[in-house]
Structure formats: structure tokens, C-alpha cells
Request: fold
Amino acid sequence: MTKRIWQGRVDSTRRSVVMQGFLASAGAVLASAPAARAFDLPRPAKLRDADNGIETSGRGSLRAHAEARGLLIGCAVNMSLLEQQPSYGRVIAEQFNVVVGENCMKWAALRPTSTTFDFKQADALVAFAEEHKLKVRGHNLCWHENLPKWFAATATKENARQLLTDHIHTVAGRYKGRIHSWDVVNEAIWIKDGRSDGMRVSPWLELIGPEYVEIAFRAARDADPTAILTYNDYGLEYDTPDELAKRAAVLSLIERLQAAGAPLQAVGIQSHLRTGDIASLGDGVHDFIKKLHKRRLDSFITEMDVNDDGLSEEDVTQQDRDVATVYKHYLQEVLKEQSVKAVLTWGLADQQSWLQAEKERPKHPERAQRPLLLGVSDGVYSPKPAFYATRSALDEAKRR
Ligand code: 9MR
Reply:
């Protein structure tokens, strides 16, 4: 059976507004054209999989397969693409039942100045989701990255606690009752910073102390009593010494938070994976999920993608197969646990992924990555082997 697989090609006249610069040297088609009007052209609403005859929309969509198991399936949304390319939103609404803003709810997006908020893009994401009956994950309320430029000169030990709680009250309060789950604190553990508790020496830690995490969770609960409050981190998936240590540090942080009565309900396991290393992927994270469940915490796979820069093959068919193998293996493993309630990928189509940034492709700077479930060419989206691998892992998920 021949499957329709998107093939990269060079097209120097069309450049995505969003991806400009990312793929300048890569042999790949970019996601959209500079003129938004180009996408006013009629496009097929459905995901195209013309060649193999397998139904991928309606009953064949990821959404339908996930819902049959009571699962959430989704992706991170790029607001520029959502605004500019109609087929982007149509495919998301067709395939998923949950979305998360890739950047639009981060501090840098929401806080033009220390005293003002700009909710334009975040509001647009929530409106899109509500229109299409998709749940929304909020990402994120407290992170060491993506702080606005004014932050360093404005935040002090005296005002940081107030700044953090005001931000959380305002943002989580605005969307109260409309957010499935908030990543309240993102990436607070970084063992290499050398602290005995494994905590990252972030601006928040330096300004407030380790209790900033608990303060953030309490503020989120005050502002939105129904959102599932989540701690989100990466580097928790492989059975390497580093990731073993990171899982242990996250568990200690959680113990500390629970002992202090902080309102934590779930952990986001980002799942930025890579091709190869499959032997060290599965057991440890499975055990981690079980430990979280014993602590009454659900798990979400929040940012899945598969970095294939390490592959030596230059054949895209093989690249796609290796990426799909990681999806299948990993999702089969984590979905054995009923406490895993959601799977989201970090982006919709390969060409739009953050992994296309040159610094994420050190081994093969000339080659585009193929980390996601779909490919896109001229606004037309096609499923890749990873799409089918994910769908069948959803089908196999153990659910009552
Ligand atoms: O994909 C996101 C990229 O567009 C942003 O420039 C970057 C900094 O805000 O964040 C990326 O998303 C990250 C996410 O927010 C947290 N986990 C790691 C993701 C990839 O770096």
C-alpha cells in the first residue's frame, strides 16, 4: 500500500512569515506565503490522504479515535498560522479535541509593559477553541524563559512575589472556568545548577526563593477553581542517569508541594524525544507515571515531538518510519496507565516545528526535521506514518 507522504522541495519564492529564516538553507517547503491572501483560495477542508484510501477525517480522525478511549489529543497552536492560513485551523479542529498556545499565553506575549496586558492572541486562541469545541491547555504562568524585556530591570526581591501573583490572578482569572489545565510552573528543575533540591536557579528562584512554586500554585487556584493545575517539565522520559536524577528531583518537589498543601493535580511530561535510544525509553517514565498516580496526580504528554537530527539516513521515507517508531513505542508505553489523560504534540506539521531552528539541527544543518504527525505543502496537510502510529497507539490504550 502506498502512503501519501509529504516530500520536501526547495521553493525560494515562498517564505512563511513565521518560519522566516528557519529553513533558509534546508530543502523544504515552508508553511505559508507572506501574503495572507494566498490562503483565501479554496482548500480541501479535510486532511488529504488521497493515495492510500485510509479514512483520516471524521471517524478516522485522531479526535474520534482518542474520544473512543476517553482521551484528549491535541497540538500546540501558532497564532500567526491560525490567523493567516485557513486550512491550519480546519485541520486542527478536525483532528484534535484540545489545543495549547505555543507562545501566546507566555509572559512575553501577554505583558508589553510591567503594568499592562495584551490578550489579543490569547483571546483569539480561546475563541477558536470554544467555537470548535476544543479544550484549552494554558501554557504557562511561571517560567524562567520568555520573560519580557522589561522584567530584568523591573523585578526586585521586594516586588517579585506581587508581580507573580498579580500576573497569575489576572491571566488565570480572565479565562476562569474555560481552561482545561494550566501549566502553572514550567521547567523548575535543572540539576546542573547544582542545588541539593535540584531546583533551577531561575529569576523567580533568585527573587523569591524556592517557595515561588507553591505561591504560583496557590495564586492559580485562587484565580480559577476548576482548571487542572499542572507542573510541566522535560528531560523526564529516558532511562539515562541525568533523566533518572531529574525524575527524582521532580518527585521531591512534588512531595514538598503536597506536604505544604499546594493545589497540584497533574504533571506535564513534555516528551521532546529523539530517534534512536528506544531501549532507554519507556520503563522509567512508566514507573514515574505510576508514582505520580500514587500521589493522586494525573499525567499529560504535553509537547511531544521526535528530533531526527541524529539519524544518518538521508531517505525521508526511512526518516518518517524511524520517527513513527518512536511515537508508537512511547505512546504504547505511557498509555498503559489510565492516569495519562492527554497527548499533545508541539506543533501541527513538520515545517512549522521549533525544531527547524538551525541550532536544533547541528548534525544535519542542511536537512529539515520531520518530527510531527503531519506534513504541509502549500497549505495542504497530509498525514505521515507518525499519524497512523499515534492513532493505533490511541486505539490500544488500556481504558475501562
Ligand atoms: O516552540 C516555542 C518557541 O516558538 C519559542 O520561541 C520558545 C521560547 O518561548 O518556546 C518554545 O516552546 C517551548 C515550550 O514553551 C516549553 N518547552 C520547550 C518548548 C520548545 O522549546
Notes: The chain has one domain: 3-396. The two ends are 33 Å apart (CA to CA). Confidence is low (pLDDT under 50) at residues 1-45. The longest strand covers residues 298-307.
